[in-house]
Amino acid sequence: MLQYVSRRLLQAIPVLLGVSFVVFSMLHLVPGDPVLIMLQGSQATSEQITSLRHQLGLDRPFLVQYGQYLWDLAHGDLGTSYRMRMPVLTLVASQFGSTLQLTLASLLLAVGLGLSLGIVAAYNRDTSVDSISMGISIFGVSVPNYLLALVLILFFSVRLGWFPATGQGGWKRLVLPAVAMGWGYAAIIARLVRQNLVEVWHQDYVLSARAKGLAERAILLRHALKNSLIPTVTIIGLQFGHMMASAVVIETVFARQGIGRLIVQAITAKDFPMVQGLVLFTASSYVLANILVDISYGYLDPRIRYE
Predict the structure, then answer these.
(1) What does pTM read for this prediction?
(2) Could you give the CA distance from residue 220 to residue 206 in angstroms, rounded to a whole number?
(3) What is the CATH number of the domain that holds 165?
(4) Is 285 helix (H, G, I), strand (E, B) or coil?
């Protein structure tokens, strides 16, 4: 297992290097000068602009800048934010907790609701209960999360006053953002679980368990469900990374702090080190989530071995 994890981590290095190069290149191709943005409204002279550009290393060739970035990265330095004049790693660490809290709450809701709807639909397949469950999932997939967020604020915050509309701190301020971000993912999980359970329902081991006289519910939960979870776990791992990357929409609507809003502010200000650090951090989250998903396969299916 340790050798497998080590090999996967080594395989992730070229991926992260490719991500860093693409982001580094795109930022330098975007029109606009970060030095002029930083000095906007300060009436700086051309000498001051040239001096600051030299201080930040923006007057050096592209490959030299990228090589210096990789050298600093290898030493655990993500750079210093142009806009906030603070280490990028410090800023990311200060905002990561809020985004992780929202992501985990949304993922917990998505998995719980998605599994419940999928199991109920499969157990009552081809009935009205199945149609209602899948109708709920279709609604979740069809409605954009920002629109659902606005509806939740209007109904549960403005009219009923049950939950605060914006801000963070306390579980009540987490409920609406988690529902808004997790509902669509729950719908995907529900449809996948239902489809996989229906497919395995006629497998030999299910027929054998039924021949032994086991109840349908026991067969569904003890035998069919576990063997149909591998595709679902794969989707859950990908959803975690996607939630981390797309939390900016929900964080903006609910006025929450987090790395999503941080990256929007960095892009607006052409804060190169901040954007590069946040994108690399998000890509690393994807890689780590995929490794954890691969490890979980062995626990779900004992036939899978890691070599």
Answers:
(1) 0.74
(2) 9
(3) 1.10.3720.10
(4) helix
